[in-house]
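Subject: for your reference before the review

Hello V.,

The reviewers asked for a structural picture of the protein, and I figured it would be easier to keep everything in one thread rather than splitting it across files. Below is the amino acid sequence we used in the manuscript, unchanged from the supplementary table.
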Amino acid sequence: MATFLTSSPRVPLLLVLCLGITGPVLAKAPDANAQGFAAYNKGDYAKAHALFEKALKQDPSNAYARLNRARTTTLLNQGKEDADDFDYCAFESNWMYLALADLSVAVEKDAQALLPKIDEDSKGLKALKASDEYKKWRKAISVFVNEKGVKEKVLGATSDWWFLQPGQIPESITLAADKRVMATQQDTYAYPTGEWRPLRSGVEITPEKKPARAWKLLAGKYYFDQGKRFFFEVRLEPDGETTPADSGWTTGPLSIGPLSGDCL
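And here is what came back from the structure prediction:
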């Protein structure tokens, strides 16, 4: 946006020289995020989105503009995931992951101020918050900010995890209610592969024929769009260095998501 000159009365030449003013006084550029929020409140989501994008080009660390762009991204794209030509696994164009990426940066920058606004939002983020992707992401945020009762919220009586490494077949790992660790690869049947028990900072897992090891519960970052964006995901990571005896899922990390389904 162009910078406009302010109108001002004539200033004596001597005063100008004393103040070191050698050119016209410039007015401060309008706040693009504030302009965007005004358009958002009027229901002009396309205009608002463009202004939030402008605000983030000016200052990528603007947490409020991140939240606001997540809102307009949701409102402008909700429902597209139901179309036959929607490529869910193209994360850089999947509106859900783009919105979660903006929310992740917003919470990372200022969780105390922004997380209540996210939780209270029932307009801009409504469609996103109804998705499984958001619900898994919100668990990761619970871990990130260490909310009360987070371990019980994430682990519960049973919890399902994914083990995924480049070039390997994804493996589903379930920490079952009976304290068995169950593994499933592709569409095969689930088979026991160890035992687990809760710890203060995560869990202890004892794989079959291997020693017990503590695993930490944490919020990791999943990068996409050539490393330019990320969203938070819940992870279990084994304590310490892996050993030659470790293989497959026992090397960790295990992840709950938001990623799911065929994109793993």
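For the response letter, the relevant points are probably these. Residues 158 and 176 are 5 Å apart (CA to CA). The first helix runs from residue 13 to 19.

Happy to draft the paragraph if you're swamped.

O.
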